[in-house]
Amino acid sequence: MSSAYRDLFVSASDGLRLYVRDYGPELGSALPVVCLPGLARTSEDFHDLAMSLSQDPSTPRRVLSLDYRGRGRSDWDKDWRQYDVRIEANDVLQVLTVTGIHKAVFVGTSRGGLITMALGAIHPTVLAAAVLNDVGPVIEGKGLMRIRGYVGKLPVPRTLAEGADLLKRMSDSHFPRLTDEQWLKQANGTWREDSGRLVLRYDPELMKTLEALDLEMPLPDLWPLFESLKSIPVLAIRGANSDLLSAKTLEAMRTSHPDLKAITVPDQGHAPALEGDLIAAIRQLIAETENRLSAAA
Question: How far apart, in whole angstroms, are the C-alpha atoms of residue 6 and residue 276?
Fold first, then answer.
């Protein structure tokens, strides 16, 4: 356990054990934040953001960062079909019930943004505001094909440095300005050491959820889910090199949502790291949301 956060384990409704990083004060008036990672990523991806928000000397706030079932320190499911957005959304609600959080700002990267939109449809009162990081109501098939090509299929590197080099060769064109240190951070979020060798930080069976998709057929229409966010402020982030969220879709999101701010991050693909100016933008969204809630009270 790190002194920066508490290790929290929660039982899902079917008994599976879920892991959560729990940052900041458990009690307080500050609006909490819930961070939801990408398909094959973990709670570690939000550490910088969580530290910035939870350690703020003027307004420290609680931040939960989740590992979905089959990822990170959460248990793997015996049935890969359970790696489903609807089930994962219910897992998130179970975590909120256990932690006593009734309303929060949700920060969702990729898969996490889809889960956030799903929560808007099934339990809208829990959302105070949403950050959608490189995801929206239209998912580009090209991006899905690329992700399907590597999830659960990466060769096992001998060292994290070798893994960082592998990831850089795969995605350097999408992230041309990432440093060696940042690639190493990505590798550390992809593999962990187990008995002297590196293993994936997620269940390789996740690949089956992607293989089950027929990319020759039209993808599901997610606009109704996005519409469920219309009553709350939204910050939509897109990497300029993203192949999953198009500039056209981002503009359509901005046009259709009365309170959406759109940011395009240069020299980043899917999905931009939440650091620097993006942390500042998220902090601003949270402050504006708290002011709005206070005025309405």
Answer: 24
Secondary structure element (H or E) that encloses residue 277, with its range: helix 277-296
Confidence of residue 2 (pLDDT cuts 50, 70, 90): low
Separation of alpha carbons 126 and 123, rounded Å = 6
* Residue 39 near residue 110, CB atoms below 8 Å: yes
What is the per-residue pLDDT across 14-34, written as a single tens digit (0 to 9) for each?
A: 999 999 999 999 988 899 999
* pLDDT at residue 217 greater than cutoff 80: no
What is the CATH code of the structural domain delimited by 5-141+220-296?
3.40.50.1820
E runs forming strands in the chain = 5-11, 17-23, 33-36, 63-67, 104-109, 127-133, 191-194, 197-200, 234-239, 260-265
First to last CA, the chain: 38
* Cα distance between residue 134 and residue 294, in whole Å: 30
In the beta sheet, which residues pair with residue 18?
Answer: 10
Q: How confident is the model over 147-154, as a mean pLDDT?
A: 89
Of 135, 161, 295, residue with least CA distance to 229: 135
Nearest to 120 by CA among 69, 131, 109: 131
| Residue-range domain boundaries for the chain | 5-141+220-296
Percentage of the chain surpassing pLDDT 70? 99
Residue where the block lists tokens 């309303």: 103
Which positions ≥6 away from 257 have C-beta within 8 Å?
226, 229, 230, 234
Which residues, other chains included, contact 144 with Cβ-Cβ below 8 Å and sequence gap of 6+?
Answer: 210, 213, 215, 219, 244
| Exposed/middle/buried for residue 70 (C-beta within 10 Å: 0-12, 13-18, 19+) | buried
